[in-house]
Amino acid sequence: MIDLLKAYFRLDDRDRAATIRDKVTATLLALDDALQPTLPALLTLLDVPVEDPHWPALGPPQRRQRLLDAIKRLLLRESQAQPLLMIVENLQWIDTETQACLDSIVESLPTAPLLLLVTYRPEYQPGWGHKTYYTQLRLDPLPHEHIQTLLDALLGDEDGLMPIKQRVLVRTQGNPFFVEESVQSLIEMGGVVGESGAYRLGTPSQTLQVPATVQAVLAARIDRLPAEAKHLLQTAAVIGTEVPVPLLQAVAELDEERLHRGLALLQAAEFLYETWRLPERAYTFKHALTQDVAYASLVQGRRRALHARIVEAMEVLAGDRLDDQVERLAQHALRGEVWDKALTYGRQAGDKAQARSAYREAVLCYEQALAVLEHLPDSRTAMEQAIDLRLGLRAALAALGAAPGQMLDHLHRAESLAQALGDHLRLGRVYAEMGGTFWVAGDVNRALAYGQRVLALAAALEHGGLQAWAHLTLGQIYYDLGDYPRAVESLQRNVATQQDELLSERFGAIGSVAATSRAWLSYCYAECGAFAEGLAMAEEGLRMAETVHDLFSQIEACYGVSVVYRRQGDVPRAIPLLERAVALCQEWHIPLFLPRYTAALGLTYALEGRVAAGLALVEQGMEQAIARGRPRGLALMATWLSEAYLLAGRLEEARQRAAQAVDLACQHRQRGTQAWALWLLGESMARQPSPEVGPATGHYRQALPLAEELGMRPLQAHCHLGLGTLCTKAGRLKVARAELSTAIGLYCAMDMTFWLPQAEAALAQLGAG
Hints:
Helix content: 55-70%
Number of strands: 7
Largest sheet: 3 strands, antiparallel
Strand order of the largest sheet: 5-7-6
Radius of gyration: 34 Å
Structural class: mainly alpha
Distance between the termini: 77 Å
Strand content: under 5%
Oligomer: single chain
């Protein structure tokens, strides 16, 4: 797709960044002023620095989606100016980002004057084969009569040619490329003489042989080339599918006359075709097999030397645009065993792929760079590179949803290296990543231990960014543990110390630390019933996230505001915020948050009265979370599913999910979630037609002291309401009256008006009785 853009904007490989920016801007705005917002994305794809201050604040998934959208919008708008034919060949070899771009374009084809023509081998399976506007044209081997027609066109219809034609027809099995190469081989060997379409036998037909495979035909043809032309073709094969003439000349070390004489011969023999790559000519192979066979004809040492020479020539020719070529440089350096450059360019290619959210490519680049380190002598620099590569690899794997164990393997190795170096800053970064990974994996003990190590190191280094990261991570862990005072203390440090100019800083976290810290503070305040403080903090975090256009933090803050409203019972005001959070996750393809917020939205719908629709969303979110294999949030989501089943009157399923939530919460030391799950167990039993008074009371009595210990005042109120209602059914009216009165007092104190009428009505009924 990048090559397509370069051709569309008529970019020269020697163009400087300012020239590229001018060309792209002029072409884009000449087409349509409305395309102005796509400029940062298109410039990023072309490796031009972006001047838009909002662009760096976007998270990687946001940038990736805008990159895809920019290409699609450009093509669709161009198709409105004139019908567009877009041809993409050999899909079996395309990278994941090109595939994603094509998938996006395919979705818009029904309404656009754009024809997308693609070619691929049988092993590739398009994801859009079921579309009604997709047509597959299968290219089967040509039938005998068509091969006969092709041979007549190539060789002529002289009677003496019939035996050799029959031999070619049988051998090539309907493969037209094989036919063409076989005919070309016969011509070069003198087996047939004359001119195209009018050949005759040059030697007796019984002496002519047709090789068994097209590869053998190609190998024989290449071997018959003059030495200089053969050297030129082999050099081109090492360069790649597309062969710029200046690079070919530099590597082949031929003067102009000998170069063009060799290229003319190869073009006449139909090994290479001329193409164009601004500002110079380039050549491409007639067929991928031709390149493969030419490459294979070189001995390993010769290939390695050519790859190394290509690296040197590309470095000279690229000038100050070396960044454009790092991917190709990395591959040539790797195959040329130029290990120091393979490491440098491999890491740069990985960083570049990660910046545009091409995470699979980033993983491949980082893994190749790590493998290169095995060939370099041990040194401090090499060890530092190894740490940085493993940190980059961990980030790419996390974005792909990799299992925590896979990430921890790399982090443990990075930890050992940083300790051996005594590099405390890198060690702090590793500890922070390990803390976050253990937290996601549900291993709270080790997550907490690593979080505290980060904090200690950050304090010793007086590194504000690392301290902010540590306070956020510890605050999140303490929240999960139900230790809300310590969570508030940790998160408040970020609120107190981070100034406005640091709003967009992430310090390695997934979003703005300032905004995300405020969102998590709002969760803590909501659990403790400090709704005014929680709402103020969440809304401030949301404003901050919107100011710096930080999508992750916007989503987190939307959820934070909704949590405050839902815990307080203001369901109608919670719904739009959750709908916005879910819509942002879907629009920007952020699977990390989607299961959790889908389920939260479902529960809120159910509380509002849309029980069936809400329950379906909670079930969907739970299924997605289980599929992702990250256990940390499952206990909380199990409580949501239990509550949704309660609202649907499916009491046994509510009890089962509450029991599951208790087990999961205990397993991961999530005491706040455990308290909610125990309350739900009591509710599921108390609401039976014939209530299980003893067990239900027992669960309420387990939940209540835990809620009191943790300062969870909203849950305390719910426990007292549940006990009062249950005691009323059991005829224990004095106890019921005390419990209901306590519940009413708590609901009034926290302005929880959603449940207050229920408690007041229950108490009034006792009075009336």
